[in-house]
Design a protein that fits this description.
The chain is of the alpha/beta class and 251 residues long. The chain has one domain: Undecaprenyl pyrophosphate synthetase (3-Layer(aba) Sandwich). It is built from eight helices and six strands; from the N terminus they run H-E-H-H-E-H-E-H-E-H-H-E-E-H. A six-stranded parallel beta sheet has the order 3-4-2-1-5-6, with helices on both faces. Helix 3 (38-59) runs parallel beside helix 4 (78-101) and helix 4 packs parallel to helix 5. It starts with a helix and ends in a 14-residue tail after the last helix. It binds farnesyl diphosphate (FPP). Farnesyl diphosphate (FPP) is lined by residues 24-29, 42, 45-46, 49, 68, 73, 84, 87-88, 91, 195, 220.
């Protein structure tokens, strides 16, 4: 391989996306393919989540956002909603200490008001316990919908203008973003959706403006470090232009 190619390869190897967001899809299909209840797919999904957080930290990713319950998931049968709520309780109670020990900072995005009080408390507890950690940031999108988040931000900004805390003329993309659910978190570089579906499903619509999208066929319960590395390699092949022109080659 020519020296220039070797150098390009080495540089690409270090181009680790800072922020990876994941739509963890395919738990139900994974279970159906094995004649198992959908709940078993979700339980195995939690194991995939643990593996993925560990691998992301080892690879050097700084922020992982996971779509764990969408605002639209309330339309599922009550039994499945109960199962998903139970899994969140289990995940926080069982894994929070370990995440804290691993220096993970947990942040939560989504609408909290309509959540069961004990769940809302667990989410606050996770954020509070880990708020000073400076390792990987895990952003949990729970009861989250991107359009709902944008409406919340619009309300917040309108209220600030009405109070006189903000001039209408100062409302721009940066000030607007401060009213989103997790101000200060940079936009995702890479969004991965598992299970072969190719859409965003109301996930991070504002933040995804220039994210690279990678769709992998793997059902979420089978996702692992190799699948994550595959998606990162795909990301590394992309040329990110942010609306500008391609980088010049040669002189
Ligand atoms: C999509 O699979 C996945 C979900 C709706 C929930 C994702 C949840 C987990 C991975 C586990 C829970 C983790 C926490 C922290 C609560 P699907 O049910 O839509 O699968 P399908 O499209 O094959 O039916």
């Amino acid at each position: 391989m020519p020296e220039a190619e070797i150098q390009k390869d080495a540089a690409a190897a270090f181009d680790v996306p800072r922020h990876v967001a994941i739509i963890m899809d395919g738990n139900g299909r994974w279970a159906a393919a094995r004649g198992l209840p959908r709940a078993e797919g979700h339980r195995r999904g939690v194991e995939a989540l643990r593996r993925t957080i560990r691998a992301a930290g080892e690879i050097g990713i700084k922020i992982v956002t996971i779509f764990s319950f969408s605002a639209e998931n309330w339309s599922r049968p009550a039994s499945e909603i109960g199962e998903l709520m139970g899994l969140l309780r289990w995940f926080v109670r069982n894994d929070l200490a370990e995440l804290h020990k691993s220096n993970v900072r947990v942040r939560v995005i989504g609408e909290r008001v309509s959540l069961e009080p004990d769940i809302a408390r667990l989410l606050v507890e996770a954020e509070e316990l880990t708020k000073n950690n400076d390792g990987l940031t895990l952003v949990v999108a729970f009861n989250y919908g991107a359009r709902q988040e944008i409406v919340r931000a619009a309300r917040g900004i309108a209220a600030a203008v009405k109070r006189g805390d903000l001039n209408l003329a100062d409302v721009d993309m940066d000030s607007f973003a401060q009213f989103l659910d997790a101000p200060g978190i940079p936009d995702p570089d890479l969004i991965i959706r598992t299970s072969g579906e190719q859409r965003l499903s109301n996930f991070l619509l504002w933040q995804a403006a220039y994210s690279e999208l990678v769709f992998v066929p793997t059902y979420w319960p089978d996702f692992d470090r190799a699948a994550l590395e595959f998606a990162i390699r795909e990301y590394q092949q992309r040329e990110r232009r942010f609306g500008g022109l391609a980088a010049q080659t040669g002189s």
